[in-house]
Amino acid sequence: MPFRPEGRGILRENSVTAPQTTRTEGTPSDARARLSARGLTLAYDDRVIVDGLDADIIEGTVTCVIGPNGCGKSTMLRALGRLMRPRSGLVELDGRDIHRTPTREVARVLGVLPQQPTAPDGLTVADLVARGRHPAQRWYRQWSGDDHEAVARALELTGLADLADSPLSELSGGQRQRAWISMVLAQGTDLLLLDEPTTFLDLVHQVDVLDLVRELHDEGGRTIVMVLHDLNLAARYADTVIAMRDGRVLASGGPADVLTPELLREAFGLDAVVVEDPVTGGPMVVPVGRSKGRG
After folding, report:
1. Which one, 7, 117, 191, 257, has the greatest CB density within 10 A?
2. pTM over 0.85
3. Where along the chain do its domains lie?
4. Which residues form the ABC transporter domain (predicted)?
5. Across the chain, what does the average pLDDT equal?
6. How far is Cα 230 from Cα 164, in angstroms, rounded to an integer?
């Protein structure tokens, strides 16, 4: 696991939950928001999932979105990725309404890996990664040397160059997730949205994938947003944590500011002790049990 920077103090049990406007520690006050949600309401038919949500994704950071099942994490990510049109409110990409921006322009800037992606039978790793180059192509310019270099670079970054000709079906779960991330990288964007990239993976492969994500940020300066369920992995890999419940943001800020006993009780109905991670010095959540005050 990567060593996280020092200086993130732990808020003990008498801490107060940070407000939604909390700024990530170490982030300049004039930092630019790559993605912003303003008054966002999202619904499936008559069922409202996200209601009046505000959030900012700051340039050059790794943000983890946490919250209980059904709180709207993946739905919010779909809206941020232009995969879902809001019932009301606005999503801005680099200061522009994302739904008024041409699709190809968005695809050159923003890469999205949905939850549980699927691919046709028989597809090889290289075939899948090459699909990430579609936004860069036109009817008058098909496959080019630039496309070949982008695919080769993406395979190299994810450690899959030796498996380029292997069928996806023959890969382990961790390798398959790397292949999907490689496809998004081949798209050539510097803003990535990853919906539960560690789903169904054992702990070793979860760490493997998240190490890769962090390396992509550290070496390439990419802005990355992930939905994660594991609170301690979110604390370890994120610069910013956004905590949600019932379609709203409860708190947003550095892991030590957000992952407090009070917030965990409010968001998850969980009694927990927050201690210092012996590896990183950041927060580590130790569950005690279900809170009697919240279901």
Report:
1. 257
2. no
3. 33-269
4. 35-271
5. 85
6. 31
